[in-house]
Amino acid sequence: MGQPAYDLANERGIVTTIAGPSFLLTTGPGTAASFRGPSGVAVDGAGNVYVADQFNNMIRKISPSGAVRTLAGTGAYGSVNGSGATASFSEPTGVALDVKGNLYVADFGNNLIRKIDTSGSVSTLAGSGTPASTDGQGVGASFDAPAGVAVDAAGNVYVADEYNNQIRKISPTGFVSTLAGNGNTGSSNGAGTAASFYYPTGVAVDVAGNVYVADWNNNMVRMIDPLGVVTTLAGNGIAGYPNGPVPGANLDYPYGIAIDATGNLYVGSEGLNLIEKISPSGVVVTLAGKEGDIGDANGTVSEASFFSPLGVAVDAAENVYVADYGNNLIRKISPSGDVSTLAGSGAYGSTNSTATASFNSPNGVAVDDIGDIYVADYFNNVIRAISPSGVVGTMAGTGSVGAANGIDLLATFNYPYGVAVDGSGNIYVADVHNNMIRKITSFGEVGTLAGSGKEGHANGTGTAASFFSPQGVAVDAAGNVYVADQGNNLIRKITSSGAVTTLAGSGASGSVNGMGTAASFFGPTGLAVDAAGNVYVADQLNNMIRKINSSGVVSTLAGSGTSGSSDGTGTGASFYQPSGVCVDASGNIYVADQFNNVIRKIIPSGLVVTWAGNGTIGSSNGTGYTASFNRPTGVAVDAVGNVYVADAGNNLIRKITTP
To answer: Residue 591 to residues 440, 530, 575, 612, 637: CA-CA distances in angstroms?
Structure first.
């Protein structure tokens, strides 16, 4: 490998490995994570569990494999709206999901009900922030320490408004009304505001519209029928044990409540450290835990122990999830009665779970504004995410081949190759064998942005357009997505409204420069776009890096067209099937020079240098030429100039920093 025209030794990249020892699909243990007073839980259809992590002021998400990440919240007290980690909460205690995947949060300390939509954006659904019990529209209403939330199929949100001793209802249009409770402490039954509660903390709703209330300080479970009539379903008002037929059975400070598809209720009994189950026939039994015992033992229901269990949730398979508040754990009770720890070390903290992750030919890589890394894990048919602290999780995909849309792990891909991320956290995927461009919102909703699924080169809107083996994607600040349509030898553009056009390329294989469709490419694979709207193309089979300026004119930026590894200026340099390209804020371009097993750098003057890698196949870390790669295919650069490499042949994700 030739030396560059002038010495860049002091700028050569330092290569490290940040994820991936092998070629399997694995994620890390949830027990490496930590919580601070988890109070509420909810579970979606894909098996993801959402946690109101009260004293961390965060909403956490646990994947079915146990990987824990922070969905929303900076950790600081506040009521700031925004996306993901830019938002803030004040001791959130309850969470609930609607049928569309929106998450609702009882933001206890802020006296607000918050909403996290499927794009990951946090907003205030209702509440002024001032503690009161005013009905009204959205932020014109007020709450006082809302503790629990539930949502029905029609989108009505129910709130256990603890210090107001009321159950509130928020309509789909955002109007807040008082469903039941006169505001005074008491246990009176009756219609609507004729009834009374004493610190209600949890709510659940069934398919018939009955609302169930964990009436904490009354030691009761109450029911509000669709006409608004309140009755006592379980508990005689006296804290304690034993179980038995309702209403004579005792309950002991029931905090959280959930209902399954057959009408069984599950209650977190804070006072007795038990999980109780109330059958549709009205019999209360202990599902798990030892009466009064404090502990964190797993095992059968009679062997297990809890410490102040609060929130509960149940999935379609009747697995029960428990926010084990005092233990700082999230527990799971299987239908067969086995209790296990889903997530949490038991330590008091906000650590996410770091995975000993593995990949199978990771080809595309992207990085967002806060340092999260996204990987197109090609042969695993999934999109992975790596947090700045090294937490690896599966963001989307079941691992099976398919083209199904849906919430994260319900979706399927067919050999995803390229990946890009926009400023709002939306992920774009070149789904090669589906001939589609897919979009994943920051909340995990997977959809098809463009492509009929059939091979073709038709322009049009959304699924009316067609692609042929799209490999690379990039996105500009305006939300336009650019596609390296490899099989068609074209560069395509998808506007933010979904309209697909051909930006450049005649469709014939070649290396002709010129305006738009007068130009030609040969197997374009990687793309990048700079702040000025220039698009850079890794024109793989031409062994070139091409540039499309903002006027649509195509030129050759670097590469002689002959395979080689020479450094030099412009067409004086050579590449060997470059497949990935990215550009930093200073205009430096980084190239994954695939079969040279190196990362090249093109500085603004046009000089091409070998920045990292010695050209031999290997996985050594080190500075500059001391490092080695094995068929690197994708590159991405973050805001501070760190470069991330999808080292496909090594099944690794590498990081290159500048000394």
So the answer is: 26, 14, 9, 10, 11
Cα–Cα distance measured from residue 300 to residue 278, given in angstroms and rounded to the nearest whole number: 19
Q: What's 220-269 look like in SS3? A: EEEEECCCCEEEEEECCCCECCCCEECCCCCECCEEEEEECCCCCEEEEE
Given a contact cutoff of 8 angstroms between Cβ atoms, the answer to whether 654 and 634 are in contact is: no
Residue 322 has pLDDT above 90, yes or no: yes
CA distance 591 to 614: 15
- Model confidence pTM above 0.85: no
Task: Quote the tokens at residue 260.
Answer: 């399954």
Angle at 343 between CA 341 and CA 346, to 5 degrees: 80
431-448 residue pLDDT tens: 999 999 999 987 788 999
Asked if residues 67 and 353 have their Cβ atoms less than 8 Å apart, the reply is yes
Q: And the tokens for 354?
A: 């770091």
- The 3-class SS string of 440-489 reads ECCCCEEEEEECCCCECCCCEEHHHCCECCEEEEEECCCCCEEEEEHHHC
The confidence score (pLDDT) of residue 25 equals: 34
- In whole angstroms, what is the distance from residue 161 CA to residue 97 CA? 18
Check pLDDT > 80 for residue 381: yes
Q: How far apart are CA 92 and CA 113, in angstroms?
A: 9
Which of 587, 568, 561, 580 is CA-nearest to residue 629?
580
Mean pLDDT of 506-511: 96
> In whole angstroms, what is the distance from residue 127 CA to residue 144 CA?
9
Average pLDDT over residues 278-288: 85
> Tell me, what DSSP letter sits at residue 77?
B
Give how far the C-alpha of residue 92 lies from the chain's centroid of Cα atoms, to the nearest Å.
19
Q: For the chain, what is the mean pLDDT?
A: 89
Phi, psi of 222 (to 5 degrees): -110, 160
Instruction: Name the nearest CA neighbour of 168 among 211, 117, 207, 215.
Output: 211
In the structure encoding, which two tokens stand for residue 322, read together? 């428990």
Beta strands (DSSP E) in 456-577 are 460-461, 470-475, 481-485, 490-494, 499-504, 514-515, 524-529, 535-539, 544-548, 553-558, 568-569
